[in-house]
Amino acid sequence: MIASEVRALFAVAARPEVVSLAGGMPNVAALPLETVSAVMADLVLQQGTVALQYGSAQGVGSLRESICDVMALEGITAAPDDVVVTSGSQQALDLVAKIFLDPGDTVVTEAPTYVTAINTFAAYQARIAHVPMDGDGVVPEALADTFARLHAQGRAPKLFYTVPTFQNPAGVTLSAARRHQVLEVCRRAGVLILEDNPYGLLRYDGEPVRALRADAARRHDVVYLGSFSKTFAAGLRVGWALAPAAVRDKLVLAAESAVLSQSPFTQLAVDRYLRTEPWPDQIKVFREMYRERRDAMLGALTAYMPPGVTWTAPAGGFFVWATLPDGLDAKAMLPRATGARVAYVPGAGFFADGSGRANMRLSFCYPPPERIREGVRRLGDVIADEIALRDTGTSRVPRVTPGSPLARNRRVRRR
Questions:
Q1: Total-model pTM
Q2: Contact present, 40 and 232 (Cβ < 8 Å)
Q3: DSSP bridge partners of 196
Q4: Separation between Cα atoms, residue 76 and residue 81, nearest integer Å
Q5: What is the mean pLDDT of residues 223-247?
Q6: What stretches of 73-168 show up as alpha helix (H) in DSSP?
Q7: Residue-wise pLDDT tens digits, 379-404
Q8: Cα dihedral angle (41, 42, 44, 46), rounded to 10 degrees?
Protein backbone atom coordinates (compact mmCIF):
# COMPACT_ATOMS: atom_id res chain seq x y z
CA MET A 1 0.00 0.00 0.00
CA ILE A 2 1.27 3.45 -0.94
CA ALA A 3 0.31 6.98 0.04
CA SER A 4 -1.78 9.14 -2.28
CA GLU A 5 -0.09 12.14 -3.87
CA VAL A 6 -3.33 14.08 -3.37
CA ARG A 7 -3.87 13.18 0.30
CA ALA A 8 -0.32 14.18 1.13
CA LEU A 9 -1.16 17.75 0.03
CA PHE A 10 -4.29 18.18 2.13
CA ALA A 11 -2.55 19.59 5.20
CA VAL A 12 -0.87 22.31 3.14
CA ALA A 13 -3.85 22.97 0.89
CA ALA A 14 -6.17 23.40 3.90
CA ARG A 15 -4.27 26.47 5.13
CA PRO A 16 -6.52 29.50 4.49
CA GLU A 17 -3.74 31.58 2.92
CA VAL A 18 -3.07 28.87 0.30
CA VAL A 19 -5.11 28.77 -2.91
CA SER A 20 -5.66 25.06 -3.44
CA LEU A 21 -5.82 23.97 -7.06
CA ALA A 22 -5.10 20.44 -5.82
CA GLY A 23 -8.04 18.47 -4.41
CA GLY A 24 -11.07 17.55 -6.49
CA MET A 25 -13.61 18.41 -3.78
CA PRO A 26 -17.11 19.17 -5.08
CA ASN A 27 -18.63 22.45 -3.94
CA VAL A 28 -21.48 21.27 -1.72
CA ALA A 29 -22.22 24.88 -0.73
CA ALA A 30 -24.28 25.02 -3.93
CA LEU A 31 -26.72 22.44 -2.50
CA PRO A 32 -30.08 23.61 -1.13
CA LEU A 33 -29.12 22.63 2.42
CA GLU A 34 -32.50 23.46 3.92
CA THR A 35 -34.13 21.10 1.43
CA VAL A 36 -31.60 18.37 2.12
CA SER A 37 -32.17 18.81 5.86
CA ALA A 38 -35.94 18.48 5.40
CA VAL A 39 -35.49 15.36 3.29
CA MET A 40 -33.40 13.71 5.99
CA ALA A 41 -35.70 14.77 8.84
CA ASP A 42 -38.67 13.40 6.94
CA LEU A 43 -36.77 10.17 6.33
CA VAL A 44 -36.16 9.64 10.05
CA LEU A 45 -39.78 10.35 10.91
CA GLN A 46 -41.27 8.12 8.24
CA GLN A 47 -38.69 5.35 7.76
CA GLY A 48 -36.44 5.66 10.77
CA THR A 49 -36.73 2.05 11.90
CA VAL A 50 -35.54 0.93 8.46
CA ALA A 51 -33.01 3.69 7.81
CA LEU A 52 -31.24 3.17 11.14
CA GLN A 53 -31.10 -0.64 10.89
CA TYR A 54 -28.75 -3.04 9.10
CA GLY A 55 -29.42 -3.41 5.39
CA SER A 56 -28.64 -5.55 2.37
CA ALA A 57 -25.09 -5.78 1.06
CA GLN A 58 -26.44 -5.24 -2.47
CA GLY A 59 -28.16 -2.01 -1.47
CA VAL A 60 -31.66 -0.64 -1.00
CA GLY A 61 -33.93 -1.80 -3.82
CA SER A 62 -35.65 1.54 -4.40
CA LEU A 63 -32.30 3.32 -4.71
CA ARG A 64 -31.10 0.75 -7.23
CA GLU A 65 -34.20 1.56 -9.28
CA SER A 66 -33.40 5.28 -9.08
CA ILE A 67 -29.80 4.61 -10.09
CA CYS A 68 -31.05 2.94 -13.27
CA ASP A 69 -32.99 6.13 -14.07
CA VAL A 70 -29.82 8.19 -13.52
CA MET A 71 -27.76 5.95 -15.81
CA ALA A 72 -30.44 6.20 -18.49
CA LEU A 73 -29.36 9.83 -18.97
CA GLU A 74 -26.09 8.44 -20.39
CA GLY A 75 -27.85 5.90 -22.62
CA ILE A 76 -27.55 2.90 -20.28
CA THR A 77 -30.37 0.39 -20.09
CA ALA A 78 -30.06 -1.58 -16.86
CA ALA A 79 -32.02 -3.65 -14.36
CA PRO A 80 -31.94 -2.86 -10.63
CA ASP A 81 -30.88 -6.43 -9.89
CA ASP A 82 -27.57 -5.80 -11.68
CA VAL A 83 -26.70 -2.79 -9.49
CA VAL A 84 -24.63 -3.06 -6.31
CA VAL A 85 -24.57 0.02 -4.07
CA THR A 86 -21.19 0.84 -2.54
CA SER A 87 -19.52 3.39 -0.29
CA GLY A 88 -18.68 5.74 -3.13
CA SER A 89 -17.40 4.43 -6.44
CA GLN A 90 -14.00 4.07 -4.77
CA GLN A 91 -15.24 1.05 -2.83
CA ALA A 92 -16.69 -0.40 -6.03
CA LEU A 93 -13.24 -0.05 -7.61
CA ASP A 94 -11.66 -1.81 -4.64
CA LEU A 95 -14.20 -4.65 -4.71
CA VAL A 96 -13.68 -5.24 -8.44
CA ALA A 97 -9.92 -5.36 -7.87
CA LYS A 98 -10.40 -7.79 -4.98
CA ILE A 99 -12.49 -10.10 -7.16
CA PHE A 100 -10.34 -10.10 -10.30
CA LEU A 101 -6.73 -9.46 -9.34
CA ASP A 102 -4.13 -11.89 -8.10
CA PRO A 103 -0.53 -10.86 -7.33
CA GLY A 104 1.35 -10.33 -10.59
CA ASP A 105 -1.77 -9.77 -12.74
CA THR A 106 -1.76 -6.88 -15.20
CA VAL A 107 -4.22 -3.99 -15.41
CA VAL A 108 -4.11 -1.68 -18.44
CA THR A 109 -4.92 1.98 -17.82
CA GLU A 110 -4.76 5.30 -19.59
CA ALA A 111 -1.66 7.42 -19.12
CA PRO A 112 -2.18 9.41 -16.96
CA THR A 113 -4.87 7.80 -14.82
CA TYR A 114 -6.73 8.30 -11.54
CA VAL A 115 -4.16 8.29 -8.74
CA THR A 116 -6.20 6.22 -6.28
CA ALA A 117 -6.86 3.57 -8.92
CA ILE A 118 -3.09 3.12 -9.15
CA ASN A 119 -2.92 2.76 -5.37
CA THR A 120 -5.84 0.31 -5.33
CA PHE A 121 -4.34 -1.95 -7.98
CA ALA A 122 -0.95 -1.76 -6.27
CA ALA A 123 -2.53 -2.87 -2.98
CA TYR A 124 -3.57 -6.12 -4.70
CA GLN A 125 -0.03 -6.46 -6.10
CA ALA A 126 -1.08 -5.98 -9.70
CA ARG A 127 1.18 -4.56 -12.39
CA ILE A 128 0.01 -1.58 -14.44
CA ALA A 129 0.59 -1.08 -18.16
CA HIS A 130 -0.13 2.41 -19.46
CA VAL A 131 -1.59 3.40 -22.84
CA PRO A 132 -1.08 6.95 -24.16
CA MET A 133 -3.87 9.48 -24.63
CA ASP A 134 -4.27 12.58 -26.74
CA GLY A 135 -6.96 15.25 -26.92
CA ASP A 136 -9.55 12.66 -28.01
CA GLY A 137 -8.80 10.21 -25.19
CA VAL A 138 -7.00 6.90 -25.19
CA VAL A 139 -5.51 5.93 -28.57
CA PRO A 140 -7.24 2.71 -29.79
CA GLU A 141 -4.28 1.56 -31.91
CA ALA A 142 -1.95 1.92 -28.93
CA LEU A 143 -4.44 0.00 -26.78
CA ALA A 144 -4.52 -2.87 -29.30
CA ASP A 145 -0.71 -2.88 -29.49
CA THR A 146 -0.46 -3.00 -25.69
CA PHE A 147 -2.84 -5.95 -25.48
CA ALA A 148 -0.89 -7.80 -28.19
CA ARG A 149 2.44 -7.12 -26.47
CA LEU A 150 1.16 -8.30 -23.10
CA HIS A 151 -0.32 -11.47 -24.61
CA ALA A 152 3.00 -12.19 -26.33
CA GLN A 153 4.72 -11.84 -22.94
CA GLY A 154 2.29 -14.25 -21.31
CA ARG A 155 0.72 -11.42 -19.31
CA ALA A 156 -2.87 -11.41 -20.57
CA PRO A 157 -4.44 -8.30 -18.98
CA LYS A 158 -7.29 -8.81 -16.53
CA LEU A 159 -8.87 -5.36 -16.91
CA PHE A 160 -8.79 -2.16 -18.91
CA TYR A 161 -9.52 0.64 -16.44
CA THR A 162 -10.72 3.89 -18.01
CA VAL A 163 -12.28 7.23 -17.05
CA PRO A 164 -13.53 8.05 -20.55
CA THR A 165 -15.55 11.19 -19.82
CA PHE A 166 -13.89 14.36 -18.43
CA GLN A 167 -10.99 12.22 -17.35
CA ASN A 168 -9.26 12.52 -14.00
CA PRO A 169 -6.61 13.96 -14.21
CA ALA A 170 -6.37 15.04 -17.85
CA GLY A 171 -9.86 16.46 -18.33
CA VAL A 172 -10.15 15.00 -21.85
CA THR A 173 -13.09 12.98 -23.17
CA LEU A 174 -12.92 9.88 -25.33
CA SER A 175 -14.44 10.78 -28.71
CA ALA A 176 -17.56 9.01 -29.99
CA ALA A 177 -15.67 7.31 -32.83
CA ARG A 178 -12.98 6.06 -30.50
CA ARG A 179 -15.53 4.69 -28.03
CA HIS A 180 -16.68 2.16 -30.58
CA GLN A 181 -13.07 1.33 -31.46
CA VAL A 182 -12.11 0.82 -27.82
CA LEU A 183 -15.10 -1.45 -27.25
CA GLU A 184 -14.13 -3.53 -30.28
CA VAL A 185 -10.43 -3.70 -29.34
CA CYS A 186 -11.30 -4.95 -25.85
CA ARG A 187 -13.90 -7.40 -27.19
CA ARG A 188 -11.41 -8.96 -29.60
CA ALA A 189 -8.78 -9.21 -26.86
CA GLY A 190 -11.22 -10.65 -24.34
CA VAL A 191 -10.45 -7.88 -21.81
CA LEU A 192 -13.09 -6.64 -19.37
CA ILE A 193 -13.58 -2.85 -19.36
CA LEU A 194 -13.87 -1.13 -15.99
CA GLU A 195 -15.58 2.19 -16.81
CA ASP A 196 -15.31 4.77 -14.02
CA ASN A 197 -17.67 7.68 -14.66
CA PRO A 198 -18.08 10.07 -11.71
CA TYR A 199 -18.22 13.25 -13.83
CA GLY A 200 -20.44 12.17 -16.74
CA LEU A 201 -23.45 14.36 -15.92
CA LEU A 202 -21.28 17.46 -15.46
CA ARG A 203 -21.02 18.34 -19.13
CA TYR A 204 -21.08 22.11 -19.51
CA ASP A 205 -22.82 22.31 -22.87
CA GLY A 206 -25.16 19.83 -24.51
CA GLU A 207 -26.48 16.46 -23.43
CA PRO A 208 -24.43 13.95 -21.40
CA VAL A 209 -21.97 11.83 -23.35
CA ARG A 210 -23.10 8.24 -23.94
CA ALA A 211 -21.33 5.85 -21.62
CA LEU A 212 -19.21 3.01 -22.97
CA ARG A 213 -21.59 0.63 -21.22
CA ALA A 214 -24.46 2.07 -23.27
CA ASP A 215 -22.90 0.92 -26.55
CA ALA A 216 -21.31 -2.36 -25.49
CA ALA A 217 -22.68 -5.05 -27.81
CA ARG A 218 -22.41 -7.54 -24.95
CA ARG A 219 -23.30 -6.10 -21.58
CA HIS A 220 -20.90 -8.40 -19.77
CA ASP A 221 -17.99 -6.63 -21.55
CA VAL A 222 -18.19 -3.59 -19.23
CA VAL A 223 -18.44 -3.07 -15.47
CA TYR A 224 -19.67 0.49 -14.92
CA LEU A 225 -18.88 2.51 -11.78
CA GLY A 226 -20.96 5.55 -10.79
CA SER A 227 -21.21 7.93 -7.86
CA PHE A 228 -23.38 10.62 -6.30
CA SER A 229 -20.30 12.32 -4.84
CA LYS A 230 -20.05 14.87 -7.67
CA THR A 231 -23.75 15.32 -8.46
CA PHE A 232 -25.18 15.34 -4.93
CA ALA A 233 -22.99 15.06 -1.82
CA ALA A 234 -19.60 13.42 -1.41
CA GLY A 235 -20.04 13.08 2.35
CA LEU A 236 -22.92 10.63 1.96
CA ARG A 237 -20.51 8.16 0.30
CA VAL A 238 -23.01 6.55 -2.07
CA GLY A 239 -21.79 5.01 -5.32
CA TRP A 240 -22.51 1.90 -7.29
CA ALA A 241 -21.35 -0.76 -9.71
CA LEU A 242 -23.40 -2.02 -12.65
CA ALA A 243 -22.12 -5.50 -13.41
CA PRO A 244 -23.05 -8.75 -15.17
CA ALA A 245 -24.86 -11.24 -12.93
CA ALA A 246 -21.83 -13.42 -12.16
CA VAL A 247 -19.71 -10.40 -11.24
CA ARG A 248 -22.58 -8.81 -9.33
CA ASP A 249 -22.91 -11.87 -7.08
CA LYS A 250 -19.20 -11.75 -6.26
CA LEU A 251 -19.42 -8.01 -5.57
CA VAL A 252 -22.19 -8.63 -3.04
CA LEU A 253 -20.12 -11.32 -1.30
CA ALA A 254 -17.08 -9.04 -1.23
CA ALA A 255 -19.16 -6.14 0.13
CA GLU A 256 -20.55 -8.36 2.89
CA SER A 257 -17.01 -9.29 3.85
CA ALA A 258 -15.88 -5.66 3.87
CA VAL A 259 -18.74 -3.78 5.54
CA LEU A 260 -21.58 -6.27 6.16
CA SER A 261 -23.96 -3.74 4.60
CA GLN A 262 -23.89 -0.20 3.28
CA SER A 263 -25.67 2.49 5.30
CA PRO A 264 -29.43 2.27 4.70
CA PHE A 265 -29.77 5.82 6.03
CA THR A 266 -27.55 7.46 3.39
CA GLN A 267 -29.01 5.27 0.64
CA LEU A 268 -32.59 6.13 1.55
CA ALA A 269 -31.66 9.80 1.89
CA VAL A 270 -30.27 9.84 -1.67
CA ASP A 271 -33.25 7.88 -2.97
CA ARG A 272 -35.77 10.19 -1.28
CA TYR A 273 -33.91 13.23 -2.65
CA LEU A 274 -34.01 11.79 -6.18
CA ARG A 275 -37.71 10.94 -5.93
CA THR A 276 -39.01 14.12 -4.27
CA GLU A 277 -36.73 16.93 -5.43
CA PRO A 278 -35.97 18.40 -8.90
CA TRP A 279 -32.44 16.97 -8.90
CA PRO A 280 -31.85 17.56 -12.64
CA ASP A 281 -32.23 21.28 -11.88
CA GLN A 282 -29.62 20.96 -9.12
CA ILE A 283 -27.21 19.26 -11.54
CA LYS A 284 -27.77 22.21 -13.88
CA VAL A 285 -26.77 24.54 -11.01
CA PHE A 286 -23.59 22.53 -10.50
CA ARG A 287 -22.80 22.57 -14.22
CA GLU A 288 -23.19 26.34 -14.48
CA MET A 289 -21.08 26.91 -11.36
CA TYR A 290 -18.28 24.62 -12.53
CA ARG A 291 -18.41 26.08 -16.04
CA GLU A 292 -17.82 29.55 -14.59
CA ARG A 293 -14.85 28.24 -12.61
CA ARG A 294 -13.46 26.35 -15.60
CA ASP A 295 -13.65 29.56 -17.63
CA ALA A 296 -11.92 31.49 -14.84
CA MET A 297 -9.06 28.99 -14.83
CA LEU A 298 -8.64 28.88 -18.59
CA GLY A 299 -8.72 32.67 -18.80
CA ALA A 300 -6.16 32.99 -16.00
CA LEU A 301 -3.88 30.40 -17.60
CA THR A 302 -3.94 32.39 -20.83
CA ALA A 303 -3.23 35.63 -18.95
CA TYR A 304 -0.54 34.47 -16.51
CA MET A 305 1.27 31.40 -17.78
CA PRO A 306 4.72 32.00 -19.30
CA PRO A 307 5.46 30.82 -22.85
CA GLY A 308 5.95 27.10 -23.19
CA VAL A 309 3.24 26.02 -20.73
CA THR A 310 0.35 24.12 -22.30
CA TRP A 311 -2.93 22.81 -20.88
CA THR A 312 -6.13 20.97 -21.73
CA ALA A 313 -9.56 22.65 -22.05
CA PRO A 314 -12.12 20.28 -20.47
CA ALA A 315 -15.74 20.24 -21.62
CA GLY A 316 -16.88 19.09 -18.18
CA GLY A 317 -15.67 17.69 -14.89
CA PHE A 318 -13.18 19.24 -12.49
CA PHE A 319 -9.64 19.22 -13.93
CA VAL A 320 -7.13 20.86 -16.24
CA TRP A 321 -3.90 19.00 -17.10
CA ALA A 322 -0.94 21.32 -17.57
CA THR A 323 2.46 20.56 -19.11
CA LEU A 324 5.55 22.55 -18.13
CA PRO A 325 8.36 23.60 -20.50
CA ASP A 326 11.33 21.28 -20.97
CA GLY A 327 13.61 20.96 -17.98
CA LEU A 328 11.02 21.78 -15.31
CA ASP A 329 9.87 19.26 -12.72
CA ALA A 330 6.43 19.79 -11.17
CA LYS A 331 7.19 17.75 -8.06
CA ALA A 332 10.51 19.50 -7.41
CA MET A 333 8.75 22.84 -7.93
CA LEU A 334 5.95 22.13 -5.44
CA PRO A 335 7.74 23.43 -2.29
CA ARG A 336 8.40 26.73 -4.07
CA ALA A 337 4.73 26.88 -5.10
CA THR A 338 3.39 26.19 -1.62
CA GLY A 339 5.79 28.85 -0.36
CA ALA A 340 4.05 31.21 -2.76
CA ARG A 341 0.75 30.03 -1.30
CA VAL A 342 -0.62 27.97 -4.17
CA ALA A 343 -1.01 24.18 -4.36
CA TYR A 344 -1.46 21.69 -7.19
CA VAL A 345 -0.92 17.96 -7.69
CA PRO A 346 2.32 16.95 -9.46
CA GLY A 347 1.73 14.77 -12.50
CA ALA A 348 4.00 11.90 -11.47
CA GLY A 349 1.38 10.61 -9.04
CA PHE A 350 -0.91 9.77 -11.96
CA PHE A 351 1.56 7.34 -13.54
CA ALA A 352 2.71 3.97 -12.25
CA ASP A 353 6.05 4.15 -14.06
CA GLY A 354 7.46 7.46 -12.80
CA SER A 355 6.42 9.47 -15.85
CA GLY A 356 4.67 12.81 -15.70
CA ARG A 357 7.39 14.88 -14.04
CA ALA A 358 6.59 17.81 -16.34
CA ASN A 359 2.85 17.68 -15.66
CA MET A 360 0.48 18.98 -13.01
CA ARG A 361 -3.22 18.58 -12.31
CA LEU A 362 -5.08 21.82 -11.62
CA SER A 363 -8.53 21.57 -10.04
CA PHE A 364 -11.06 24.39 -10.47
CA CYS A 365 -14.08 22.85 -8.72
CA TYR A 366 -13.72 24.24 -5.20
CA PRO A 367 -12.24 27.78 -5.08
CA PRO A 368 -14.40 30.69 -6.26
CA PRO A 369 -13.39 32.32 -9.57
CA GLU A 370 -11.44 35.19 -8.02
CA ARG A 371 -9.37 32.76 -5.93
CA ILE A 372 -8.75 30.61 -8.99
CA ARG A 373 -7.41 33.61 -10.88
CA GLU A 374 -5.18 34.60 -7.98
CA GLY A 375 -3.91 31.04 -7.56
CA VAL A 376 -3.04 30.77 -11.25
CA ARG A 377 -1.30 34.16 -11.09
CA ARG A 378 0.84 32.98 -8.19
CA LEU A 379 1.59 29.73 -10.00
CA GLY A 380 2.55 31.62 -13.16
CA ASP A 381 5.10 33.62 -11.17
CA VAL A 382 6.58 30.44 -9.71
CA ILE A 383 6.88 28.80 -13.13
CA ALA A 384 8.46 31.93 -14.62
CA ASP A 385 11.00 31.88 -11.79
CA GLU A 386 11.75 28.21 -12.48
CA ILE A 387 12.29 28.99 -16.17
CA ALA A 388 14.71 31.76 -15.23
CA LEU A 389 16.61 29.40 -12.94
CA ARG A 390 16.77 26.83 -15.74
CA ASP A 391 18.01 29.33 -18.31
CA THR A 392 20.41 31.50 -16.33
CA GLY A 393 20.78 30.02 -12.88
CA THR A 394 19.34 33.24 -11.46
CA SER A 395 15.87 33.68 -10.02
CA ARG A 396 13.61 36.01 -11.91
CA VAL A 397 12.26 38.82 -9.74
CA PRO A 398 8.53 37.96 -9.56
CA ARG A 399 5.88 40.48 -10.47
CA VAL A 400 4.46 41.97 -7.27
CA THR A 401 1.48 44.26 -7.23
CA PRO A 402 1.95 47.05 -4.63
CA GLY A 403 -0.28 46.43 -1.63
CA SER A 404 -0.89 42.79 -2.61
CA PRO A 405 -0.67 40.02 0.03
CA LEU A 406 2.59 38.88 -1.55
CA ALA A 407 4.06 42.39 -1.27
CA ARG A 408 2.96 42.66 2.35
CA ASN A 409 4.38 39.22 3.06
CA ARG A 410 7.74 40.25 1.61
CA ARG A 411 7.85 43.36 3.78
CA VAL A 412 7.23 41.18 6.82
CA ARG A 413 10.04 38.82 5.85
CA ARG A 414 12.46 41.74 5.32
CA ARG A 415 11.70 43.05 8.78
A1: 0.91
A2: no
A3: 225
A4: 14
A5: 96
A6: 88-100, 115-123, 140-152
A7: 999 999 999 999 987 665 444 444 44
A8: 170
